[in-house]
Design a protein that fits this description.
Belongs to the thioredoxin family. The chain is an alpha/beta fold. The chain has 12 helices and 5 strands. The chain folds into 3 domains: 115 residues, 3-Layer(aba) Sandwich (Glutaredoxin); 48 residues, no CATH class; 83 residues, Serine Threonine Protein Phosphatase 5, Tetratricopeptide repeat (Alpha Horseshoe). A 5-stranded mixed sheet has the order 1-3-2-4-5, sandwiched between helices. The protein is globular.
């Protein structure tokens, strides 16, 4: 969605002023919103070193400062990303972190190497050098942070419509890209989410209250679920429709199930709310 709308339930960043350490210097702070762009996509251009840290750990901050100094010295040959495990626990869960500090290196979206605990500067230097040697010539990036990204003109136009808030023009532009290339990941996700956003923002403000008064009305339930997702309460939206699946049959049940699956697809498949929702749906069906 190029940052146009964030449908995930983002948690508030934990404050480092509650007796913990200050954030490590350098690097891009990772949230659920920028994880894909700053880690997965970026790692197809240059290696990305992810530091999973906590303000409760002085060793985390010291390691972050050391990595930040190395990243600055290397002038964009690799990227440093930091994940505050207290502020974004779901991101930490994706990396399978069990202790802080933990460092994971990725290239082309795949983990290459990792370690836990503090390391002396000379060992960090050797580890970074081995990472750069292992990925030399294998990634698309030049390593120059000032080198502009080469973007297809049609994709650039679609993004421009989206940034300008012209959802209909953006949807049509992305759809044209998708028609020409059915496997285009950005276009597929953008069409899905723009279509949802256009529908959901047209819902009446009292949709949830109306649906609660008539819980078996399918259209009212659909409207309420859309509003709940806009309010970043996906779990409530999923539970509402799962309950309706349990109370319906035949074509009505198929209709509700289809809408629920469409809502699941707005999110990362690893999202805990999606995992729980799919499990509840399976139980309701079988």
């Amino acid at each position: 969605m190029a940052g146009a709308v964030d449908l995930s339930a983002l948690k508030q960043r934990a404050s480092a002023g509650d007796g913990g350490s200050a954030a490590p210097s350098g690097g891009v702070e990772i949230t659920e919103a920028n994880l894909e762009a700053e880690v997965l996509v970026r790692s197809s251009q240059v290696p990305v070193v992810v530091l999973l840290w906590s303000p409760r750990s002085d060793a985390s901050v010291q390691l972050g400062d050391a990595l930040g100094s190395l990243a600055s010295a290397d002038g964009g040959k690799w990227s440093l990303a930091t994940v505050n495990v207290d502020a974004v626990p779901r991101v930490a869960q994706m990396f399978g972190v069990q202790a802080v500090p933990t460092v994971v290196a990725l290239a082309a979206g795949q983990p290459l190497s990792s370690f836990q605990g503090a390391q002396p500067p000379e060992q960090l230097r050797q580890w970074i050098d081995s990472l750069l040697n292992a990925t030399a010539g294998k990634l698309s990036g030049s390593g120059d942070p000032d080198q502009p990204e080469q973007v297809d003109p049609e994709l650039a136009q679609a993004r421009a419509h989206l940034d300008a808030g012209d959802f209909e023009a953006a949807r049509k532009a992305y759809q044209a890209i998708l028609d020409a290339n059915p496997g285009h990941a950005e276009a597929k996700g953008a069409v899905r989410q723009i279509s949802f956003l256009q529908r959901a923002t047209s819902r009446a403000p009292g949709a949830i209250v109306a649906a609660d008064a008539k819980p078996d009305d399918i259209e009212l339930a659909f409207a309420a679920a859309d509003v709940e997702i806009l309010q970043q309460n996906a779990a409530a939206a999923f539970d509402r429709l799962v309950g309706l699946v349990q109370r319906t049959s035949g074509d009505d049940r198929a209709k509700v199930r289809t809408r629920l699956v469409e809502l699941f697809e707005l999110f990362d498949p690893a999202d805990p709310d999606v995992i729980a929702g799919r499990r509840k749906l399976a139980n309701a069906l079988y």
